[in-house]
Amino acid sequence: MLQIGNKIKKIREFKGITREYMAAHLDVSLSHYGRIERDETPLTLDKLQQVSEALDVNYLDILSFDEKQVFNFINHGNHSSQAYVLSQEYNYPPHIIENLIQRISELEKSISELKR
Fold first, then answer.
1. Helix crossing, 30-37 with 19-26: angle to 10°?
2. What's the N-to-C CA distance of the chain in angstroms?
3. Cys staple from 5: which of 25, 29, 39, 72, with CB 3.0 to 4.6 Å?
4. DSSP string covering 52-89, please?
5. CA–CA separation, 54 vs 100, rounded Å?
6. pLDDT tens, 81-109?
7. Handedness of CA 61, 66, 70, 73 (dihedral sign)
8. Nearby residues of 89 by Cβ (< 8 Å), 6 or more positions away
9. Sign of CA dihedral 95, 107, 73, 5
10. Is 28 helix (H, G, I), strand (E, B) or coil?
């Protein structure tokens, strides 16, 4: 199970948000923000709320985030409906989900070609 800092990092990366943006939004140094993502500094409920605002997700979504469910969901079924569900469930803008799905498709194709 991912620790809270790693969950924040994964959501930030999925949403294409920089560490610099997060540090500025939280009004902390970049190195301090890095310690948050590495779980090296305690995260208060107030700070978690600020993080959730910066990521544009509910703090409960951060706490319950499971990247395996996201990737398992992306790898099965209709990609367009997945984009809609993921953007609704995790509050990701649809263009980010579409970009992720496109990249996954490209990687799957590359893997398939390498196996030949």
1. 100
2. 35
3. 39
4. HHHHTS-HHHHHH--HHHHHHHHTSS-HHHHHHHHHHH
5. 20
6. 444 444 445 555 666 667 777 788 888 88
7. negative
8. 61
9. negative
10. coil
